């Protein structure tokens, strides 16, 4: 017997979120977007994944970010997302911005990695199939490939748009110099780059060294990932290491040694956050949103309580000079 789809999105969802224009484009993105890098793989609880997406959408988060390799195993986040779309979001496809990417190793051999046309075309076709979609809203080249001519990689992004398999294209993890060349090629092809996706947080400010200025000048959007430094920029580790946290679970990307090393800074930042009547996660997100060149802050979440907590960041994105100085002093 087939189960009825009972999900009806909160009718107030668009009042709960602010939307920003993505560079010089027609596309508005929510100030917070949700990424599916963790917590959506076959190793994760499907019901929880489903609840995370519903909670996000109920709070006006219209953008879900994926990549070919999210899981584990790689591909399973897209497959599970496809199932949830079918079950719960069938009526909402036109209210969603769904992105995917390719650029990291996905299958064996010389055609399953980097930035060739051969790899990217096959990868997007596979992603569409896994998600059960005709097109993605944004397709990214996931990381620069210095051995493939930029013209080939950008030409492939342009092709995807012309084929109707992607509405917009973006770059991720590109340094400013290569990004600038890529923007020019895309512009010449008639498919301007919509958005750049770099890592950015209070703990990792490399984009302040040229990339943000370039994005502002070129009017390309910015969606910044790991704004909470994978959970370190929250108050969760202050009283110990929770068993169900990313640092304690087996993650190749975050471990308890790293958390303990950062703990003095985390505690000091938490005090500043409390003086602003925020918690650390909220302050870390609102600190990014104070810059209007940032289109969206791309969070992750393992629990719906974290989404509900993090969305409150949009309520206070103004910082006094004194607060900024205090923050900078901690980070020195
Ligand atoms: N383009 C790229 O190369 C690239 C690379 C990485 C990520 N991304 C994108 O960025 C997205 C976000 O990355 P991320 O997961 O590293 O982001 P993040 O927001 O820095 O970290 C998310 C993790 O922090 C913890 N957390 C979140 N909100 C919390 C709260 N309010 N209080 C306490 N803990 C909280 C949860 O971890 P626990 O498990 O500890 O609960 C959550 O899974 C990814 O899903 C992906 O879409 C892109």
What secondary-structure arrangement, pairings included, does this model have?
Layout: E1 19-21, E2 28-30, E3 32-35, H1 46-58, E4 63-65, H2 76-88, E5 97-102, H3 117-131, E6 136-141, H4 150-162, E7 166-172, H5 176-189, E8 195-197, H6 211-218, E9 221-225, H7 256-275, H8 280-289, E10 296-299, H9 304-311, H10 321-331
Parallel strand pairs: 3-4, 3-10, 4-5, 5-6, 6-7, 7-8, 8-9, 9-10
Antiparallel strand pairs: 1-2
Bound molecules: NADP nicotinamide-adenine-dinucleotide phosphate.
The site of NADP nicotinamide-adenine-dinucleotide phosphate has 29 residues, from strand 10 and helix 9.
Molecular structure report:
There is one protein chain. With 332 residues, the chain is an alpha/beta fold. The chain has one domain: NADP-dependent oxidoreductase domain (TIM Barrel), CATH 3.20.20. The chain has ten helices and ten strands. The strands form two sheets. An eight-stranded parallel barrel has the order 3-4-5-6-7-8-9-10, surrounded by six helices. Helix 1 packs across helix 2 and helix 2 (76-88) packs parallel to helix 3. The longest helix has 20 residues, at 256-275. The protein is globular. The N and C termini lie far apart (61 Å). The structure holds NADP nicotinamide-adenine-dinucleotide phosphate. NADP nicotinamide-adenine-dinucleotide phosphate is lined by residues 35-38, 65, 142, 172-173, 197, 225-231, 234, 236, 245-246, 281, 298-302, 306, 309-310.
């Amino acid at each position: 017997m087939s189960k009825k789809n009972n999900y009806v999105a909160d009718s107030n969802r668009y009042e709960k979120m602010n939307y920003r224009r993505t560079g010089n484009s027609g596309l508005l993105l929510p100030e917070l977007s949700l990424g599916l890098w963790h917590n959506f793989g076959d190793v994760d609880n499907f019901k929880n994944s489903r609840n995370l997406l519903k909670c996000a959408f109920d709070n006006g988060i219209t953008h879900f970010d994926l990549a070919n390799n999210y899981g584990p195993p790689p591909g399973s986040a897209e497959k599970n997302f496809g199932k949830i779309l079918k079950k719960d979001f069938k009526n909402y496809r036109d209210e969603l911005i769904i992105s995917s990417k390719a650029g990291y190793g996905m299958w064996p051999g010389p055609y399953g990695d980097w930035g060739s046309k051969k790899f990217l075309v096959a990868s997007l076709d596979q992603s569409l199939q896994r998600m059960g979609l005709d097109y993605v809203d944004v397709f990214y080249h996931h990381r620069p490939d210095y051995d493939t001519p930029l013209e080939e990689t950008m030409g492939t992004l342009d092709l995807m748009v012309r084929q109707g398999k992607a509405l917009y294209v973006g770059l991720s993890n590109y340094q400013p110099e290569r990004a600038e060349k890529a923007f020019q090629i895309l512009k010449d092809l008639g498919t301007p780059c919509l958005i750049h996706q770099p890592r950015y947080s209070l703990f990792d400010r490399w984009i302040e060294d040229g990339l943000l200025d370039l994005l502002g000048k070129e009017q390309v959007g910015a969606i910044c990932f790991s704004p909470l430094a994978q959970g370190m920029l929250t108050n969760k580790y202050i009283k110990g290491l929770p068993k169900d946290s990313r640092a304690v679970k087996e993650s190749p990307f975050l471990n308890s040694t790293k958390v303990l090393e950062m703990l003095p800074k985390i505690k000091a930042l938490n005090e500043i956050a409390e003086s602003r009547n925020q918690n650390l996660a909220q302050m870390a997100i609102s600190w990014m949103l104070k810059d209007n060149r940032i289109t969206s802050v791309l969070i992750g979440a393992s629990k719906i309580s974290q989404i509900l907590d993090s969305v409150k960041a949009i309520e206070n994105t103004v910082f006094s000079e004194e607060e900024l100085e205090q923050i900078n002093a901690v980070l020195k």
